[in-house]
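User: Hey, my collaborator sent me this sequence without any context and asked if I could get a structure. I don't really work with proteins. Can you help?
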Amino acid sequence: MFGCASSIKWVVAVLAGFGCIANAQWVDFTDETPTRLLLSSVSTNDAQEKDITTADIDRDGDTDVIIVRKRPFSTPGGNDDVLLMNEGGVLVDRTVQYGFDAGTSDARDVICVDVDGDQWLDIVICTTFEDPIRLYMNLGNDGGGNWLGMVDESGSRLGTVFEDSRKYCAVGAGDVNGDNSPDLFFSNYNGGDDLLYINDGNGNFTDQTQSRMGQNANSAFGTSNAIVDIDGDGDGDIIKLTTLYNEPPFDRGIFVLWNNGSGVFDAIPFQRVSNPNEPYMFILEDFDGNGSLDMYVVNDGADQLYLTTSVVPNSQWNMTISNPSPSPRTGGFGGNLRATDIDNDGDIDLGVGPIDTDIQNCGESNGFAFLRNNGGSLGDPIPNNNPQNYNIEPHDFAFFDINGDGCDDVFMGLCTGYRVFIQSNCVSVCLPDFNDDGQLDFFDISTFLTAFRNQHPEADFTGDGQFDFFDIAAFLSAFAAGCP
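Assistant: No problem. I've predicted the 3D structure and written it out in structure-token form, which is a compact way to encode the shape of the chain:
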């Protein structure tokens, strides 16, 4: 798999190209919501704004779902959050049972990251409208191997925030100061300072925004960010979005704040990496398979795909810019982005959400879009006059293998309610067969470890954008389970 497409994937791609697979619409899904989703803490007709992340939060080998909720659009109003545990392919509401009910949060984003280094994923909730940021710590297992759930330790672990206007809309995690522990960056979306929380290595955070960012912390409508070593020099750079209006020293666009090597982001001139436009969301993935991160940008107008050509450390990120093949569903307002190899053909496909964070467009959008990757070129294979059951209106969504058949499914948090779509024409591959020789042996382990060391996207076995213990554990678990 690493470095070449597997024979299985190649056969699937060829057959699909000639129409030999009974799948006229590329990937097909069956709506199995009634049997795959058991809610108890919220209504099945839940009309709140929803943001979603997924992770194997209890380390039982399958993927669980975390949902944060607020009053829709730019109106304050916190709501209870939701924890769905994957139990044999059924997403069961265990919010209360596992301690994820410490109070409402006026939340706009959520991530899972191991903040204290105990090998258990914790939950960071990005809140807005002055609501305090939330940090739920993972309690791990008891002596009998039973998962103990989560506990809210926000008050004891999150230090004072000095920005007066705390209206955050996005959170990213990564090591910025070189101590091998994840720090947190929050984007402000109402014309105020962002927040850079520095981790002491034990999961305790202090606000060091001013000393490390200065004026480069200013944002206007910051809805998306990432901490990533984009130039390969070993430190985490910050990529952030600011839009709608100018907030000096930034105009509207997407910017790279270069890390000077010690976690300071105003010592090196920043780079504007987007064309003049109205960027709204972005995602970083290796879309053309050359080992470098590329970027897809949702604009208020036409979306854009940025393919990396070269990077000069601490100086210049060079890219070619194109518009993906015209899609009836990606014009105008857009929302959240998620990427996965949905068809198991060896490249990264993309989901584009239709719902704007700030402007109410439920009932008026073009619906969710799948963009298929063909050699680094993204396009919508579904014509406008033949919509699929998943071309609906989610606030947010997630791709993961719900039923354990080797193919990713789709979970959606809609303008009203939720949906679970199971891939119905699944063609699975043997993921731990990393050298594609049809056997599981030492050479697969060696190839995986090489990919992991080089931070190749295929070694991100958990799909969370991090390269850590959980990817190794997931690979070894898949290797031990064998292949069909």
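In plain terms: The two ends are 16 Å apart (CA to CA). You can pass these tokens on to your collaborator as they are.
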